[in-house]
Amino acid sequence: MARLLLGVSGGIAAYKALELVRLATRAGHAVRVVQTPTSERFVGVASFEALTGAPVLTDEFQRDPARGAYPGDTPPAHEPISHLALVANADVFLVAPASANTLAKLAHGLADNLLSSAALAARCPLVVAPAMNDAMWEHPATQANVATLRARGVRVVEPGVGALASKGEHGAGRLAEPAELLAACEEAIPAACSSLAGLRVLVTAGGTREPIDSVRFVGNRSSGRMGFALADQAARRGAAVTVVAANVALPRAPGVGYREVETAAELAAACAEEFPRCDVLLMAAAVADFRPAAPAATKIKKGADAPDAIALERTPDVLVGLAAERRPGQTLVGFAAEHGDDALAYAREKLARKRLDAIVVNDISRAEIGFDATDNEVTILTPDGERPLARAAKEEIAGSILDEVVRLRATASSDGTLGTAPADRAARV
Ligand code: CTP
Question: Which domains does the chain have, with CATH numbers?
Fold first, then answer.
């Protein structure tokens, strides 16, 4: 799953770009579209907006209601510069159809409309799919422009030979088929987007609620943001992701599977089912350690019969239970919200006690990070080290945690200890 920016320039083949968007979104990619003014003569923004589920931009000075965010992403709090934000957030930029005029602009670095400005600002891979009349395609100027782009590392999806738009005309210049365009984009997507390809990732997110009676509960302040960011980033890196979501009020991402739970017991049951088939467990949920021992079936009234105190009982530690059942090939990551100076020492004790591959620690004594904040600042502890991550948006932190998971798995599979409990590992290496 990647963020694909599609630039549509003027040409009859623009209608084929609609099919490309349909294929790309069906494959789980998040797509945004920018159009040149000329392309609007062929296909209107409404069609692309309907298929992508996101606003289409046609002008550099147009405000982007989605603030540069791709479908499934949370828009930033500030208003970014539209053409820069869209391309900065893209994993790949495809220009299809690329007219002769647009190719010439890209080859010469012109930035006179939204599409060409975005292309000039692109740091992600650029793929162009030319489409034009055969005489224009074969003209030495066009061929020289294509050669310039290729030499610069731009991928060119060659136009096909066949019937052209004008009646009776035949030759080279037909836009490649949508499936070929999608394959070219997927090939160009950086390795970071596929580092978890083929893996099944189980994420727990949110906070459990333990009923006191039919309307009240004992809960916690976890919003689920960190868990959802992990799920989203894991899906973007090619994993098949399931989230066990405990009371999370955030939007669900396309391409991610969700199991909704409320209590620690429901979370434990969902995890017990999902865990055996996962390769990576990211246990970000705040699971209640205690629950009311005898929840009332109806609402407790405040009369003379109201209890003075609520008796609590311990809940089982879900993560410890899952770690005891781990099979070779699984990587387990816990999360610890700790207070103050001894945060790392407490977390290191949990890492060992819960037999984890890594634990992500954050200091909840700081108001600007942690619970329900958009940012986080954490340290990833592993049996052999610690990696502090500077304060950043939870999406970015999630990406770094997943990079660490990839590193841990690569190290463990090279020394033959992947999936063995860290405590047993010392004996094997
Ligand atoms: N966890 C769990 N089941 C519980 C409690 C916690 O699976 N009943 C998991 C959390 O999802 C997290 C990790 O254990 O990944 C650490 O959670 P934390 O609440 O910090 O750990 P506790 O063992 O409950 O420690 P504390 O004594 O600090 O509450």
Answer: 3-189 (3.40.50.1950), 195-428 (3.40.50.10300)
